[in-house]
């Protein structure tokens, strides 16, 4: 009896199917397949399974986990956040500009070294974030023009603008007043605008946002809303604070 030969299966390079509720699914799938190079049917199935079974709120980790399980080296960019947001008074600043009644016209005469908690570190952090494609923003209950004046002097014009400085006047009240809902409406708005996702989709990318604030209430509210990478800045945003929290954020080598 003549032995039969098994026909050779021809594999295709289809994009792995991921949950339609995940706005990053196609991006992740494409990146994984591109990184795989010489693909096999088995590896494509593994990637498809990992993406399908992963949490849609942890999309940054999906790619890293899939690459690791499939035997491919991961890249450092996969663990980076998409957006870093700071509170202003008593976080970036070591003073409370609103409480001190600092006016926009006063900012040009203020000492940045005295007012900004760690000026050189903040400059270095923002420069590195932008170089790595990480968006930056400020969410404050303070006065927009004061914040803009400080940021223009600190990191140069154009880095922080009305697009990425959120203040109460954008949320139904006057600058200098608390926004109803705390920082959550500001975080949602910044995330939607800067990461280009609809407001109803913010929850799927909230875990890719790092948020620094000196208020326990603001941090608790942010975490409850899905912004899990929210850090309490009891001693301002400084290199010392960063050295304490960078490990928990998976950003140990961010400034290297």
Number of helices: 10
* Assembly of the depicted chains: single chain
Structural class: alpha/beta
What's the arrangement of strands in the largest beta sheet? 3-2-1-4-5
What is the radius of gyration computed over CA atoms, rounded to a whole number of angstroms? 22 Å
Mean pLDDT: 82
Note the overall shape.
globular
Order of helices and strands: HHHEHHHEHEHEHEH
Q: Span from first to last CA?
A: 67 Å
Tell me the fraction of residues in β-strands, as a range.
Answer: 5-15%
Q: Please give the number of β-strands.
A: 5
Brief characterization of the structure:
With 256 residues, the chain is an alpha/beta fold. It has helices at 25-36, 41-53, 59-69, 88-92, 112-115, 119-131, 144-155, 184-195, 216-224, 239-245, and strands at residues 83-86, 135-139, 165-166, 209-213, 229-232.
Written description of the protein model:
The protein is of the alpha/beta class and 256 residues long. It is built from ten helices and five strands. Strands 3-2-1-4-5 form a five-stranded parallel sheet. Helix 7 (144-155) links the parallel strand 2 and strand 3 (165-166). The longest helix is centred in the first third of the chain and has 13 residues, at 41-53. The protein is globular, with a radius of gyration of 22 Å.
């Amino acid at each position: 009896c003549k032995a039969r030969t098994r026909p050779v299966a021809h594999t295709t390079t289809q994009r792995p199917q991921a949950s339609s509720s995940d706005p990053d699914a196609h991006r992740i799938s494409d990146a994984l397949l591109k990184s795989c190079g010489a693909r096999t049917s088995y590896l494509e199935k593994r990637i498809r399974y990992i993406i399908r079974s992963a949490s849609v709120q942890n999309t940054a980790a999906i790619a890293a986990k899939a690459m690791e399980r499939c035997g491919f080296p991961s890249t450092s960019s996969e663990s980076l956040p998409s957006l870093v947001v700071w509170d202003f008074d008593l976080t970036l600043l070591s003073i409370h500009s609103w409480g001190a009644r600092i006016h926009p016209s006063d900012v040009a005469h203020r000492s940045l070294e005295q007012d900004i908690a760690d000026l050189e570190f903040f400059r270095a952090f923002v420069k590195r974030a932008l170089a790595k494609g990480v968006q930056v923003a400020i969410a404050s209950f303070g006065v927009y023009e004061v914040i803009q004046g400080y940021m223009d002097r600190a990191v140069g014009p154009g880095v922080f603008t009305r697009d990425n400085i959120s203040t109460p006047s954008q949320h139904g009240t006057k600058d200098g007043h608390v926004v109803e809902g705390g920082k959550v409406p500001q975080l949602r708005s910044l995330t939607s605008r800067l990461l280009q996702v609809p407001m109803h989709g913010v929850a799927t990318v909230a875990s890719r946002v790092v948020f620094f604030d000196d208020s326990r209430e603001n941090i608790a509210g942010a975490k409850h809303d899905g912004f899990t990478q929210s850090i309490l800045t009891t001693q301002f945003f400084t290199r010392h604070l960063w050295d304490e929290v960078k490990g928990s954020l998976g950003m140990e080598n961010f400034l290297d």
